[in-house]
Amino acid sequence: MRCAGDYTDIALSVADTDWHLDRLYAFAKVWRATVLGACVSRYVINLNRPSNDESLYPGQTTTSLCPLETFRGEPLYRDGRAPDAAGREQRVRQYWQPYHDTLAAEVWRLRGLHANVLLWEAHSIASVLPRLFDDKLPDLNIGTQDGRTAASMQTRVAHATQASDYTWIANGRFKGG
Questions:
Q1: Domain annotation covers residue 130
Q2: Is 54 exposed, middle or buried (0-12, 13-18, 19+ CB in 10 A)?
Q3: Pairwise CA distance, residues 84 & 148, whole Å
Q4: β-bridge mates for residue 168, sequence order
Q5: Among 97, 123, 149, where does a domain finish?
Q6: C-beta of residue 142 within 8 angstroms of C-beta of residue 170
């Protein structure tokens, strides 16, 4: 496995981390919601990408399963230190697969208790990233795969956000899983 000496100084600052999730989603404990959080930086492996590294946004600049650069395009690894194919596969086995196995098991457990289960994937990233997005991202980005998943929730979120000061979009850049 890689060590801190493989990473650039900018990578070690972990600027693209979802720093505020604990605060933003503290209410989930009150609702007794299951919370599954990543225990590894997206710089090591992005758990929100397919294990085969297929692009979620074909034709657009995006980040990969085992990114080589930050959201701003800065290199994550020192010269010659990026993981090779075997290193990426090891990360899939060590981090990606157990995370997704746990997520699937929890969804199936909840499906045994409830007719419907909402999987809410949350992030708190910078809203201005010219390399990845045109303009400023809306405050809330709701993805329902163009209405194929959680369409009724999209309607409820849209209604709630209209009464708030937050900007929002449904199925914009982020379409959901």
A1: no
A2: exposed
A3: 36
A4: 140
A5: 123
A6: yes
**pLDDT tens by residue, the chain, 177 residues:** 457 789 999 999 988 888 888 888 899 989 989 999 888 999 999 999 999 999 888 888 888 999 999 999 999 999 999 999 999 999 999 999 999 999 999 999 999 999 989 888 888 888 888 888 888 999 888 888 888 888 888 888 888 888 889 998 888 888 876
Structural domains counted in the chain: 2
**Residue 8 belongs to domain spanning:** 4-123
d(CA 124, CA 133): 15
Residue 115 falls inside a structural domain: yes
Cβ–Cβ contacts within 10 Å for residue 2, how many? 15
